[in-house]
Specification:
The structure is a homodimer.
Chain A: E1 2-5, E2 17-18, E3 20-24, E4 27-31, E5 34-38, E6 43-48, H1 53-60, E7 63-68, H2 74-82, H3 90-93, E8 98-100, E9 107-109, E10 114-126, E11 129-142, E12 161-162, E13 167-178
Antiparallel strand pairs in A: 2-12, 3-4, 3-7, 5-6, 6-11, 7-10, 8-9, 10-11, 12-13
């Protein structure tokens, strides 16, 4: 039995969303609102509130990185989401191991299992957020987490998923099923 | 040890994405590229290829619906993704139970655990896709899948996640962990 409501308070907590870490300059911000945008050219998008320090940095910088992390990083992700780069240097404060991106000015998290280096293409306002669109220039990936067909092996990666108001979880590898399109 | 590549063929299969069904007029299309866009006003977005019949319909129609479905629906989702509303009436062909949305011209899937009715606001071109942005007008939800705080109960819902090239999986409810932001 379906009910209806026009109370939108929790409208974005209806499905689990993977959390990425957007890095730019020396800062890191978790983002649950993100998606691929285009295949050719390869474009990636994330929604950034203009209240965030990351937004200020993105106005100035030419690029950024998107870091994909595991469920084990949930405590760090929660801390990164509750602090601002205006107040602290998060990399130093949380002792985060990173290495520099090659084509943009952004740190790549050493514990990420994959990351994109992106050239900033657009920063378009929609409602109370800005859609950041970047062109993927370079992909970093941990070769040990891929299976023979070069897809992520679900037995080796527990991606972090967010399900609303501080609730994090991950995938169940035993649920994997293949349904061919044809 | 991280490797790098500029081969973007599978760049969007690095993290699991929930799959929604976008319904408009009498058609349904699976979309793995989607995200909330704004809280106030409540905006929701999905990427639509101009090759899709859904794109043609969206050019004409004023609204659409976003249906959230369970992992059990993966075989149907795979079929919906491999057929076109140009060739068949998917609702009839696959015997899909739906009921009409209240504020827009779109079917709501009876087996969805939640759905948004959206007024079309934008259809913006980015690369080889169009970003469809809709204003959420009404939320449908199955009250039995919510827990006491009105969030989705992970023990009652197995949301469908897509992990690339025909691989579907779901969440592991036992992995749920709470990390307070403060």
């Amino acid at each position: 039995m379906m009910h209806t409501t026009a109370d939108f308070e929790k409208f974005y907590y209806l499905f689990p969303q993977s959390v990425v870490l957007i890095s730019v300059a020396r800062n890191l911000m978790p983002a649950a609102w993100h998606t691929p945008i285009s295949a050719k050219p390869p474009l990636y998008g994330a929604l950034i509130s203009p209240k965030r320090y990351t937004y200020e940095l993105l106005r100035k910088e030419k690029g950024f990185a998107v870091n994909f992390v595991m469920h084990e990083n949930a405590p760090l992700v929660a801390k990164l989401g509750s602090t601002s780069g205006r107040d602290i240097d998060k990399l130093t404060h949380f002792k985060i191991a990173t290495y520099p991106a090659e084509k943009v000015t952004a740190p790549i998290l050493s514990t990420s299992y994959a990351a994109y280096e992106c050239e900033k293409c657009h920063l378009h306002e929609y409602g109370d957020h800005f859609l950041l669109v970047g062109r993927v220039l370079l992909i970093h990936f941990d070769q040990h987490v891929l299976h023979e067909r070069e897809l992520v092996d679900v037995n080796k990666v527990n991606p972090i998923l967010y399900f609303g108001t501080d609730r994090y979880l991950t995938t169940d590898p035993d649920s994997l099923s293949i349904f061919k399109k044809n």
